[in-house]
Structures are given as structure tokens and as C-alpha cells.
Design brief:
The protein is an alpha/beta fold. It has a single domain, classed as Ribokinase (UDP-N-acetylmuramoyl-L-alanine:D-glutamate ligase). 33% of the residues lie in helices and 19% in strands. The strands form 3 sheets. The chain has an 8-stranded mixed beta sheet, with helices on both faces. Strands 3-2-7-8 form a 4-stranded mixed beta sheet. A hairpin with a 5-residue loop joins strand 12 and strand 13. The radius of gyration is 19 Å and the shape is globular. The two termini are 22 Å apart.
Length: 344
């Protein structure tokens, strides 16, 4: 993490996030099959966007580099982020592009059919010029998502941003964010992620995402059509963790749902961090809430275990709620939640 020297101004931001944003339409009919949904609730979503809101609600100074279409959906997203206090002044409008959308069915505990509408979307058009116009290096942490790398020009812009941040001493955090239907070939996800790891200090992802990051023609991991559709990828997770750490990051945080998480550091045994048992309503957004909590602890200089424990608490709270960004917990409520269950 960037060290602040005596007499040198502190960074303008604690966290600077880059990547997708959009409108989320969540089924209001919990448990109903998708064909039987009668109405939806409108929220704001997108992995880095959710994380920026989560960090801001915990009390950090957070900024977001995304892009909006010149459309009412973009107005909706920008208005929400402005109310939340996330700095979006560097997020451009993209003429001729649309702000993306997601439609979600909710059939707990394990069915959450998800449809992305991202054709010609604005955030995938983020460019190197957009990166140069944003003070990404003036932050303690720069965080981006794997989906950023799925298409150009966002791919090159994101890699360039990570290079700038790393050169400036800003901690670079990659959330793997594997969305199989956003890639022309799921193996391309692994190729793109591995190309970014030399710039990453910390990587976060689920077991499936870690395995997907090592997909290749020669690899042991193979995907069936059904696995591609729901992003479930099996494989030698422990071996893949080691391979990913060899490519550059110092820390890999494996998000494990109800089991909490597992923190991997190069050359050290993994450390399991317990979660907080709750009744699940909706799992979408929980990983982003985890990321926000973890980043809060990291920025504040906490050890990895305590940071991950706060991340687990944030994630546990969000799975009991309906939306993603709108459900990110505030500092006082997450600390109260954790204290009632053994503390951090």
C-alpha cells in the first residue's frame, strides 16, 4: 500500500474502482420461477460499482471510473452514486453507447437466473484517454474487475491503469469477477487474467473463478455447456492458487460463501477465516460486499485476518437483503452485526 511520507499530502482517495456499472432489475417475487415473475425492483449494480458504494458506506473516500450512456438509465445510475457520495466526476458519458442492465430472478437458496444486457454498453468503451483523465494513482488502492478485460478498448485501458497505479506505489487489487457469458471463449478469461497478474498485489475470487483463471487448452480444467452458463468450474483449486501467486500477486483471497474465506500468501500455509451463518435471500452482491469490507481493513492497516473477517460480515449481511449496491452495510450496522456474533 502507498506510504504517506511526512510533509507529503495524503492521497485524494482511499479506493479507486474501475469497471462496469448499470441498472439491476431484481425480481420482487422471491421464490417464483422466472416465467412467473410479476414485477422487478430497480437498483444500481456492477461489481466495481458495488464495491465503491460498499467502501463509501464504511467511511472510505472512494472514486469510480466507469462510463454511462447518454440515456435515462445512465442518469439513474449516476444519480444514485452521487447521493451515495462516490466520486464519479471522472466517469464519462459515451455517445452512441447504452448504460448496461441486468435482470435477476431470485429462487433461494441456490437458483438466481441472471441475464446481462451489455451489447454496445458504455463501460466497455473506457479508453486509455479516460484513464489518463482520472487520478487513479492518487489513491491508496486501485481495484478493477476481470470483466473489464473481456473486450477492447476496456481491456487495454484497464491494464494501462493497473500499470500506472503499480508504478506510483498504489496497491492494485483484482477481483476475478468471472462472468462466462461476457467472453467469446471462457479460456480467454484465463489468458486475460494471467496477463494482468504481474500488476496485481491482491487477487480476490471464488473457487470457480480461481479455476477459470487457469483455463487453457493444455489445462486439466474443462467446462461443459451447463458449467459455462452458470460459471461453475471445478479443478485443482489449491494448485491453481499456487500457480496464480507465482505470476505476481502477494495475496490471493479465496471467497468461500457460508464458509467464510481462505487467505493465501506466497510461501505460507493458507489461513481460513470463519464466516457468519445467516439465512440466504440473494447471493448476488455478497462477494462485492466482502471486497469492500476487506479493502476497508486493508486501507486502515489491519492484518489480513481481521480485514477478511470484516469482509465476511459485510457479505453475510448482503445475502439477507434484496439488492446489491443498495444493500451494502454502513459501518455502525456491520460492527453491531459482527459484535452480536463473536466480533471481528
Amino acid at each position: 500500500m502507498k506510504t504517506v511520507l511526512s510533509g507529503v499530502p495524503e492521497p485524494a482517495f482511499d479506493t479507486f474502482h474501475m469497471g462496469r456499472s448499470g441498472m439491476d432489475l431484481y425480481s420482487k417475487d422471491i421464490g417464483a420461477k422466472f416465467v412467473d415473475i410479476g414485477s422487478f425492483a430497480a437498483y444500481v449494480g456492477g461489481s466495481p460499482t458495488n464495491m465503491s458504494v460498499g467502501c463509501r458506506r464504511l467511511g472510505l473516500k472512494s472514486a469510480l471510473l466507469t462510463a454511462f450512456g447518454e440515456d435515462p438509465v445512465g442518469d439513474f445510475v449516476a444519480h444514485f452514486l452521487g447521493k451515495e457520495g462516490v466520486d464519479i466526476r471522472y466517469s464519462p458519458r459515451k455517445p452512441g453507447r447504452h448504460t448496461s442492465a441486468v435482470v435477476l430472478g431470485i429462487e433461494p437458496p441456490d437458483k438466481f437466473p441472471l441475464m446481462f444486457y451489455r451489447d454496445n454498453c458504455a463501460d466497455i468503451a473506457l479508453s486509455i484517454d479516460d484513464v489518463l483523465a482520472a487520478p487513479i494513482a492518487d489513491s491508496r488502492v486501485f481495484q478493477f474487475a476481470g470483466t473489464n478485460l473481456s473486450q477492447e478498448p476496456s481491456r487495454s485501458a484497464t491494464l494501462y491503469a493497473a500499470e500506472l497505479a503499480r508504478k506510483a506505489g498504489t496497491t492494485v487489487v483484482l477481483d476475478l469477477d468471472f462472468r462466462a457469458n461476457q467472453w467469446h471463449d471462457p479460456r480467454a478469461f484465463g489468458v486475460a487474467v494471467r496477463s494482468a497478474l504481474h500488476c496485481a498485489d491482491i487477487v480476490m475470487g471464488t473457487e470457480d473463478e480461481i479455476n477459470a483463471a487457469m483455463l487453457s487448452d493444455a489445462g486439466a480444467v474443462r467446462l461443459t455447456d451447463s458449467q459455462i452458463s452458470d460459471a461453475r468450474v471445478s479443478g485443482d483449486t489449491a494448485g491453481h492458487v499456487g500457480s496464480l501467486l507465482e505470476l505476481g500477486p502477494a495475496v490471493l483471497v479465496e471467497k468461500r460463501g457460508e464458509s467464510g474465506c481462505r487467505v493465501h500468501k506466497k510461501g505460507e500455509p493458507p489461513q481460513d477465516v470463519a464466516g457468519f451463518p445467516v439465512t440466504v435471500q440473494n447471493i448476488l452482491g455478497a462477494g462485492d460486499a466482502f471486497g469492500a469490507g476487506f479493502l476497508y481493513g486493508y486501507v486502515k492497516g489491519w492484518d489480513l485476518h481481521k480485514s477478511a473477517r470484516l469482509g465476511n460480515a459485510c457479505g453475510a449481511m448482503v445475502v439477507t437483503r434484496h439488492g446489491c449496491s443498495i444493500s451494502m452495510p454502513y459501518w455502525d450496522e456491520v460492527i453491531a452485526f459482527a459484535d452480536e456474533r463473536g466480533g471481528l
